[in-house]
Amino acid sequence: MSTNQLEMKKKLVFLSGAGMSQESGLKTFREMGGLWESYDINEVATPEAWQRNPELVLRFYNERRKQLMQAKPNAGHLAIADLEKNFDVEVITQNVDNLHERAGSSKVLHLHGELMKARSTVDSFLVYELDHWALNPGDLCEKGSQLRPHIVWFGEAVPEIPNAIGIVEKADILVVIGTSLAVYPAAGLVNYVKKGTPVFVIDPNRPSVLQENVVYMKEKAGKGMEILQKELEKMM
Ligand code: OAD
Predict the structure, then answer these.
(1) Where a domain ends, among 99, 130, 151?
(2) DSSP code, position 204
(3) What are phi and psi of 184, to 5 degrees?
(4) N or C: which end of the chain has fewer CB within 10 A?
């Protein structure tokens, strides 16, 4: 593939959320039976929770990591990776799992961090890959401070948002998949598309903040991507 061929490919951008990985067996957050029904955000996903009870926070993310290590990418993840044959695909995900990467997607931007990484509590640039599920009290960075999950907690800045905006602004086609669009600034990204850019939305429940002029597909990620892939390939 030459650079020219890459330049000619349309830029296809995905914005994914927890529903993307639901068919891989990972729970979403805000639906019935979702994670935020069983856990209080303020006790496991804020900087204050980490100060108050780091053991509980570590346990919560250890459980997520353990489940992730047993999960596999689903048909939806695989279809998105497959579209790289014909499009310049970029994935912006709110998910902290690595299922897009494991499906073969090569450009994945994680807005809310990554479960399979840990970082230093004194130097946020010291980030470490994890190859096991347990991050424990006493696990230290090279400067001797406790490691924390590499997750963007509620109340923390979202450092990747300017990069995500830059990607959405260049999109020729945007696909929003498996997100309730309830959390900002991620949810605001859809407003950065160029005028006239086709926007597709795949979700069994229509996100309430969406504008009228999107193509809404009331499907789960796997089936929705099977249908959409055929449509997208007509738009190459
Ligand atoms: P939500 O739980 O808010 O929304 C999940 C969306 O997925 C809903 O719109 C569901 O209808 C949809 N859904 C469920 N099953 C699906 C399937 N099989 N295929 C496609 N869609 C399906 O999750 P997010 O929008 O991702 O942040 O939540 C955003 C952020 O809030 C998360 O990144 C997380 C959470 O708190 C942090 O923890 C920082």
Answers:
(1) 151
(2) S
(3) -100, 155
(4) N
- Residue 100 sits in the same domain as residue 79: yes
Residue-wise pLDDT tens digits, 54-71:
999 999 999 999 999 999
> Are 187 and 228 part of one and the same domain?
yes
Count of domains forming the chain: 2
Q: Distance from the CA of 95 to the center of ligand 1, in angstroms?
A: 8
The string of pLDDT tens digits covering residues 136-182 is 999 999 999 999 999 999 999 999 999 999 999 999 999 999 999 99
**Domain limits at 129?**
27-70+117-151
Residue of 27, 28, 61 best suited for mutating to test ligand 1, as the one with most atoms within 8 Å of CB = 28
Residue 112 designated active-site: yes
Q: Which residues contact 29 (CB under 8 A, 6 or more apart)?
A: 18, 35, 36, 180
Which amino acid residue places its CA nearest to atom 11 of ligand 1?
205
Ligand 1 pocket, residue 97 CB under 6 Å:
no
Is the distance from the beta carbon of residue 88 to the nearest atom of ligand 1 less than 6 Å? no
Task: Give yes or no: residues 32 and 17 share one domain.
Answer: no
